[in-house]
């Protein structure tokens, strides 16, 4: 086992958690029907804590309960931020200072 292996998250089957949470809060991407994002995230956190989900998996649980419209926005935002991060790092590397 290498040092880096200690930082990897352990595999966890999330399906039993999803099955045990039939009334989980959904975030569908409709501003008129969805709760505020912070409230929704608090509900996801509380459900994860109640079901003993390791903190490293909370984001996966939250993504599971995104509706198609919200998930599409999330993917666009994630890709945009990832690209901006790459550009920032590249500019830092290329700068003559």
Automatic annotation (TrEMBL):
What's the domain of life for this entry? Eukaryota
> What name appears for this protein in its UniProt entry?
Uncharacterized protein
């Amino acid at each position: 086992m290498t040092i880096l292996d200690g930082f990897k998250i352990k595999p966890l089957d999330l399906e039993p958690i999803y099955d045990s949470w039939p009334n989980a809060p959904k975030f569908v991407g409709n501003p008129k029907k969805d709760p505020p994002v912070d409230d929704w995230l608090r509900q996801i956190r509380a459900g994860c804590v109640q079901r003993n989900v390791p903190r490293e998996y909370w984001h996966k649980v939250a993504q599971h309960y995104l509706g198609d419209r919200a998930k599409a926005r999330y993917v666009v935002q994630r890709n945009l931020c990832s690209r901006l991060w790459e550009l920032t790092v590249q500019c830092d590397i290329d700068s003559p200072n």
